[in-house]
Design goal:
- The chain is of the alpha+beta class.
- About 30% of the residues lie in helices and about 25% in strands.
- It contains 16 helices and 26 strands.
- The strands form seven sheets. The protein has a nine-stranded mixed sheet, with helices on both faces. A five-stranded mixed sheet has the order 23-22-24-25-26, with helices on both faces.
- It is globular and about 80 Å long.
- The structure holds glycyl-adenosine-5'-phosphate.
- Glycyl-adenosine-5'-phosphate binds next to strand 11, strand 16, strand 19 and helix 12.
Length: about 500
């Protein structure tokens, strides 16, 4: 986190004001680029790979949407207030912090009161007495119009735009079940105790896919053979350690409700592993009845083990059945039923893959962080397809026409669609250190051989090896390295 803050990946929003609320972050140049590249990677590997439709929904939605979705009634956290200093606390958190045991999400208020009393818990700030536990709705209201009489809310999950757009997309996009709709966008939650930087924010980015399917055809999904052997770690309820299972075994063992679910769990595993998360630090955790969100019949949380934070949920995989479309049909009176070829009319079921983009970014920074004896500074081993910049360009010295030549190299690489950063200040070692620290995988040095022989030095971040590359071949070589079509070692003499 020191590195992320020092190199401006992200920082508190409106930070020059003391009144800036906590749990809201801005992303600087490196973080903005990394965030966009993670989203682009997700689009390519999960969304486009599965021919999903994409939308970009509005963030403000009317009250009626959230009456239908159940958020006005059910999207609550349990809170308790200090009767002395008036600080608000999440009741389940202070119990968990005091006892070290997880408190299930839906634990009733009365039970939480009992736990607080049994443990003799007081306000963590001033040791004052705590009030009875109440429910606090996490949505943020926005009052529109000059009279501020139109009650709207900032969406607490991006997928509500997908459910509201479902009808128009089925009418305009010539779709057949099963099909997915995906979206990257911001969600807003009035978290009582935002914490751990990007892990629990009040405004955060989600990358979500909603797969609509015929419940009678939950076992009909193309492409299953390609993922059948994909191995994943599963943490079942009641077992201490995760077990390794393939998508095929999941299905044969009846661990999940159908082939479509086994397929998409494997797709999540494949995508996040390819981003650079080590297999042994990932797991799917079965979420029990007491903890599942109000709309889900089956949930597998995809989690990564963080050194500092323990298990962190990156992706909620939920079987939302017909809960949302059913609720919106009732609330809006729009007919959201699907007509099957055999004439059956039904509300499609939904399998959801709801990922946190910012949590993925923060946990990826941890997974990519390296500090070894080979260099004096830390570096980020981020895959080239995700790193903030694909290539850095340096003139060896700031004279003899080398900066002008280096700028020509920059233009040429940019014309070939390569994200480049240019740096001419400080020693070459210092410049390597600066780009290694932000995970830039390749650096090009323009030296005295460039004008004479038309070659540059290309350096690999992870191995620090250096190869001589012909200027004319540079863009093509970098693209091949980017796509994994060429190992760096093959460039070495
Ligand atoms: N549409 C379902 C849904 O929103 P969720 O489990 O509430 O489910 C999905 O959220 C993902 O969004 C989580 O797995 C997490 O990665 C991310 N997320 C949720 N709340 C967050 C918060 N306050 N700050 C940052 N990321 C959050």
């Amino acid at each position: 986190m020191q590195l992320a803050l020092r190199r401006g990946f992200f920082f508190p929003a409106s930070e020059i004001y003391s009144s800036a609320p906590s749990g809201i972050y801005d992303f600087g140049p490196n973080g903005r680029a990394l965030r966009d590249n993670i989203a682009a990677f997700w689009r390519r590997h999960l969304v486009q790979h599965n021919d999903m439709l994409e939308i970009d929904g509005a963030q403000i939605m009317p009250r009626a949407v959230f009456e239908s979705s159940g958020h006005l009634m059910g999207f609550n956290d349990p809170v308790t207030q200090c009767t002395k200093c008036h600080a608000m606390h999440r009741a389940d958190r202070i119990i968990a912090d005091a006892t070290g045991a997880q408190v299930p999400e839906g634990t009733p208020e009365g039970k939480l009161d009992e736990m607080i009393e049994d443990q003799g818990l007081a306000c963590p700030k001033c040791r004052g007495t705590l009030s009875k536990v109440k429910r606090f709705n996490l949505m943020m209201a926005v009052m529109l119009g000059p009279l501020q009489d139109q009650e709207c809310y900032l969406r607490p999950e991006t997928c509500q735009s997908i459910f509201c757009d479902y009808l128009r997309l089925t009418k305009t996009m010539r779709v057949k079940l099963p099909f997915g709709i995906a979206q990257r966008g911001n969600a807003f939650r009035n978290e009582i105790s935002p914490r751990n930087y990007l892990i629990r924010q009040r405004e955060f980015a989600q990358i979500e896919c909603e797969i609509f399917f015929d419940p009678e055809q939950i076992n009909e999904i193309g492409g299953f053979d390609a993922v059948k052997g994909t191995s994943m770690r599963f943490q079942r309820i009641g077992s201490d350690d995760p077990v390794e299972m393939t998508a095929g075994e999941l299905l044969e063992g009846g661990v999940v409700s159908g082939r479509l679910i086994a397929y998409y769990l494997a797709e999540v595993q494949r995508t996040w592993e390819a981003m650079g998360f080590p297999h042994e630090l990932l797991r799917f955790r079965e979420v029990g009845d007491d903890e599942r969100p109000f709309y889900s019949k089956e949930t597998w949380d995809f989690e990564v083990l963080s050194d500092q934070l323990g298990w962190v949920e990156l992706v909620a995989n939920n079987y939302r059945i017909d809960y949302d479309l059913g609720g919106h049909q009732k609330g809006s009176k729009a007919d959201l039923r699907w007509t099957a070829e055999d004439g059956r009319k039904f509300i499609p079921h939904v399998w959801e893959i709801s990922a946190g983009l910012d949590r993925t970014l923060m946990c990826l920074l941890e997974a990519a962080f390296r500090q070894d004896d080979s260099r004096k500074y830390p570096y980020l081993s981020i895959p080239p397809q995700i790193s903030p910049y694909l290539c850095a360009v340096f003139p060896l010295v700031r004279k003899d026409g080398l900066p002008a030549l280096a700028h020509e190299v920059v233009d040429d690489l940019r014309n070939h669609g390569i994200e480049v950063t240019y740096d001419e200040s400080g020693s070459i070692g210092r410049r390597y250190a600066r780009v290694d620290e932000v995970g830039c995988p390749f650096a090009v040095t323009v030296d005295y051989d460039t004008p004479e022989k038309g070659v540059v030095t290309l350096r690999d971040r992870d191995s620090t090896e250096q190869a001589t590359v012909d200027l004319k071949e540079l863009p093509g070589t970098i693209w091949k390295l980017y796509n994994g079509l060429l190992p760096f070692s093959s460039l070495l003499g």
